[in-house]
Structures are given as C-alpha cells and as structure tokens.
C-alpha cells in the first residue's frame, strides 16, 4: 500500500551539507525544514530545492521546542513522518523498505543507525534508532537528547525495518557546549527521569568534571526507575573512569567489576578494566579480561556500545598481555588480528615486527 511520507528537520547554517542531504531524502513525498536562524545560504538553497521552509528563532534554545515547531510544517495528509538531521544520510531504497514494512496502526519504526565513523572510514557506534513515526501521534520532549512521546489513544506499536540504514556524518566544527546546560535543565525539569540523569553524569565525564560525574551517576543508580542493566553498567564504568582519572585505581577496579556483574554480556566494561590493568602492568589480568570481551560476539543494538570495544583494541591489549608474559605465538596471533582491523596503524605494524623478531 502506498503511504505519503514526509521528511522533516531543523537547520542552522547547513549550506555545506544540504544538497547531499536532499539527494538522500528525495525519495519522500514531502521535505520540510524549519530554519532556526541561518546566516549563510541555507535558506536560499532550501527554497531553490523546493523544500517546505519556514524560519523561526527558538529562544531560549531547546531541541524539543525546535523539533515540535518543525513538525507543524508537515502536510496534513502525511501518513509517515521521518525526523532526521541535515548531517544524516539515508542509503538509497529506504522508502520502499519502509512502505513494504509499514502497516495501518503502526506508530514507530526502528532502523539501523551509524552514529559515527572511525578515521579509516569503518563504522564506529552503531545502534537502532526510531525517529520514524505516524502523523499526529507524537510530541518531542526534553531540552536536549530529546525523545518522541506518544500521544495517541491506542497502545504504541513498533516495527523494525531491516535494510534501512541512516548514516550520521557529524559536523565536528559545531560546538556541543550548550549540551551541558540543557542537560542540567532537563534534570531540573524532570528530576525523576533516569535517562536524563545518566546523560548528565556522562556529560560531566566528557568535561572531566569527575566529582560531579561520580555524584550524578550514583544518583542515577539509586533511582527506582533505573532498571535497564545496560545503562546501569555504563554508569558504573563511567564512575570507574572518573575514579581512575582521580588516581584512585582501587575504586576504579571496584566499579569496573560492578559494571561487568551488572551486564556481563557487554564487552565495554571488560575493556575498561583491561585498559586500566594495562596501565599498571597487570598483564595476566589484561589477558583474562580481553579474552572475556572477545568471547562476546553479539554486538548490542542499543546506543550502549563503544566502537573501540568492537574494533582492534581487544586484540591489541591481548597481544600486549601475551607478549609481556612471554607467550609470543599467542601475542603474534592477537597482534595480526588487531592489524587486520587497522592495517594503516604504524604502531600495530611495528608490534607485529617486534613479536616476529622475538619468536625467531
């Protein structure tokens, strides 16, 4: 059954990405963009491309208000709404895949999302997103890390659409300095929202505000609604990282072990602990925890997934562990596997040569 599909977005100074973005979104019936105050040629390019366009200054800035304003541009006869950012690109054929899977009564669709790419072009963090939704049944909430809140009368109904792939090519020239204040506002507005509390603690970690990071993430863990093991484990390993940065290795170890116990099916906490042990020369520990990580072969579909844990790092650290315990054959095997994943890395190339020399 054919459905009318509208892509909608917010934009500010996106002239570098608009044409690329438009080419990937042009499978939709409509494209609508709310410009939030561009000073470059964004608006003229939008008009040139025939995109439904309005300009509105959102002050004080918050993402949920901007996205709700952009939703008002969606034509009334739309069936399916697709929210994307201008630095995101669908791989071709997404519309047919969506139409083939969508059914009357569906309210949300999940799809594969690559949040970032490594320097060599390989995928970094990958998870399943769900910003495709039915018309008229949702609003955006929270000043930052905004989410869709269902407003319909029936139960929300999700589908997963295999094959749809959205790639995020971040504009690293843009500042994310506003995120911290907006997250603090989010927690102030919704102090019982465990997701916001976790994000705020993580943001303090990004800023190196270690004591606030620890305090906030402990508050997250104490919340009755904080029951998702993956996110709890992430809070625990971020607390461990904060303690490690403060020089408290014992507390860092304790929190990394708690993170492993909370979600033993995730690679990340094992790798955080292995990296800490590598820094203090506990090579037997490095071997053990990297092997635990490598025994996990199912990459999670949530955002609780870090690219390093699924790249060369486990093999690299395992190789070092085996080397410094005199197990050169095993060290070479791990080093070669790390190099296969990062063939242009000069340090890994040199490591392979050193290990080969040790064997001969």
Mean pLDDT: 95
Helix-strand pattern: EHEHEHEEHEEEEEHHHHHHHHHH
Helical element count?
A: 14
Number of strands: 10
CATH topology call of the largest domain: Spore Coat Polysaccharide Biosynthesis Protein SpsA, Chain A
The multimeric state of the shown protein is single chain
Please provide a written account of the structure.
The chain has helices at 18-25, 42-48, 63-71, 94-101, 178-189, 194-206, 210-222, 229-245, 249-262, 267-279, 283-294, 313-324, 328-341, 346-359; strands at residues 5-11, 30-35, 52-55, 80-83, 88-90, 108-114, 126-134, 138-141, 147-150, 158-168. It is of the alpha/beta class and 360 residues long. The strands form two sheets. Strands 3-2-1-4-7-6-10-5 form an eight-stranded mixed beta sheet, sandwiched between helices. The chain is globular and about 70 Å long. 38% of the residues are buried. The model has no long low-confidence stretch (mean pLDDT 95).
């Amino acid at each position: 059954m054919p459905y009318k599909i509208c892509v909608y977005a917010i934009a500010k100074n996106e002239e570098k990405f608009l044409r690329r973005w438009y080419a990937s979104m042009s499978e939709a019936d409509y494209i609508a963009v709310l410009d939030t105050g561009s000073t470059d040629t964004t608006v003229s390019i939008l008009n040139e491309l025939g995109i439904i366009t309005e300009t509105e200054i959102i002050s004080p800035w918050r993402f949920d208000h901007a996205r709700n304003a952009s939703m008002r541009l969606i034509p009334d006869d739309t069936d399916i709404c697709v929210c994307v950012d201008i630095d995101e690109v669908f791989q071709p054929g997404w519309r047919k895949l969506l139409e083939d899977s969508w059914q009357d009564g569906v309210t949300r669709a999940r799809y594969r999302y690559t949040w970032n790419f490594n320097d060599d072009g390989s995928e970094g963090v990958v998870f399943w997103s769900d910003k495709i939704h039915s018309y008229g049944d949702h609003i955006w909430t929270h000043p930052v890390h905004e989410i869709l809140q269902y407003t319909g009368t029936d139960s929300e109904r999700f589908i997963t659409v295999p094959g749809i792939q959205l790639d995020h090519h971040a504009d690293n020239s843009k500042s994310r300095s506003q995120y911290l204040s907006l997250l603090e506002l989010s927690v102030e507005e919704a102090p019982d929202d465990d997701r916001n509390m976790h994000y705020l603690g993580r943001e303090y970690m990004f800023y190196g505000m270690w004591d606030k990071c620890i305090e906030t993430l402990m508050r997250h863990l104490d919340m009755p609604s904080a029951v998702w093991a993956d996110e709890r484990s992430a809070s625990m390993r971020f607390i461990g990282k904060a303690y490690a940065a403060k020089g408290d290795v014992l507390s860092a170890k304790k929190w990394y072990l708690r993170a492993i116990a909370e979600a033993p099916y995730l690679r990340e906490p094992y790798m955080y602990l292995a990296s800490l042990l590598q820094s203090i020369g506990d090579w037997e520990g490095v071997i053990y925890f990297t092997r635990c990580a490598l025994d996990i072969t199912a990459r999670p579909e949530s955002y609780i997934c870090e690219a390093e844990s699924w790249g060369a790092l486990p093999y690299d650290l395992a190789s070092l562990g085996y080397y410094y315990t005199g197990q050169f054959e095993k060290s070479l095997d791990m080093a070669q596997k790390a190099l296969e994943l990062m063939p242009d890395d000069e340090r890994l190339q040199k490591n392979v040569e050193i290990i080969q020399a040790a064997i001969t």
